[in-house]
Amino acid sequence: MEQGDLEAGFTCALVSMTFAFFDGYPLDRLYKSCQILIHQFELYKIFTNTHSIAQIKYGCAVLIGALSIDWAEFSRFGETIDSITGSSESITEKELFYPLFLGLMARVWVSLLSNDFEMAEVLLKRSYNKASLKDDKVYQNHSTLTFYTGLMAAGRYRQTKGKKYLRKLRKAERQLKQVWKANGNNCMNRAMILQAERKSITMSVHDWKQVKRTYDLAILVSKQAGAPSKQLGHIHEVAFACELAGLYFMHIDQREHAIRYLVTALEYYKHWGATWKISTMKQMYVDYIGANILHNQVGMSTMDCNHAVSAEESGLSRNVPAESSDEDDQVIVFGAKDGASCNKQLAYSIIYDSIESRLPHPPELD
Fold this sequence. Notes:
By secondary structure, the protein is an all-alpha fold. The protein is built from 18 helices and 2 strands. The chain has helices at residues 3-22, 27-44, 50-63, 71-76, 81-85, 93-113, 117-129, 131-134, 139-160, 163-183, 188-202, 208-223, 235-251, 255-272, 275-284, 286-289, 291-296, 344-355; strands at 331-332, 341-342. Strands 1-2 form a two-stranded antiparallel ribbon. β1 (331-332) and β2 form a beta hairpin. α1 runs parallel beside α3.
């Protein structure tokens, strides 16, 4: 086999692992795959994608708890070439693109999972300051960058009440809906998570049931996202959406709902293999998911739940509702006749009815 064929094969393996990392495949297996691939790079003396695969390995290692975070080094990533490659070796702009992108996105994701939205903002600014990243329109890269920007903006708005962050959140939500319209349903769940985040920070506390319903639907769609062979969909985003819902209920002092969602998030993180995140959650939410509380909530989680929640119970109906006046709440449902644009409640009804018989469901205490 020619060397060029080997390089192409290794590049395909890198792309596969990139998608696996962003789509929430089991972290322990992905981490081992990265180790094997790096060893194969060394055996064949092919180093084209070494720095890129090293960034995926880094993200996995942190999340499974195999590597402690050096926060000073963490925050400097991407400032210089040696912060990316670990040396001052010469590297072209083209060769720099993927290790830079993967390294920044892995660190942004870790920052979001740490609820360190300020760090996420710093790293995202660094991403957008790189022309090659800013102009990149590859589906996976663009949708991931946009999703993380929206999550960061929601978190920073809660911290600062700065209107610029609400604008960024709305923009990211609209952009993901455009990607959803142009490229299909793969990022549908991400748009819906951002929609739930927007509603959680803009709607009155008296409308908490509507916010809850939006989170529930985002969780359901996240469970059916990705390849059909994946039983739990984008499990990492299911877990994070559950955690965000739990945080919302913490903020409005609804303890039982908060515990339900946080316990469910904990279980999904466990199935993803994110040992570090589980440890972090237990420290951050000790009053909600401490050992004594978890002991009293046995059987509460929804991982093995077999009951079905009807569209009527969730507040949805197949009847066509009145047109929404909120442009941000208009969505596109593909798979509906002619790919037509639907009002949000009708769209959610179609989504909900199509998956409710096949999926476990989020907590329901109403």
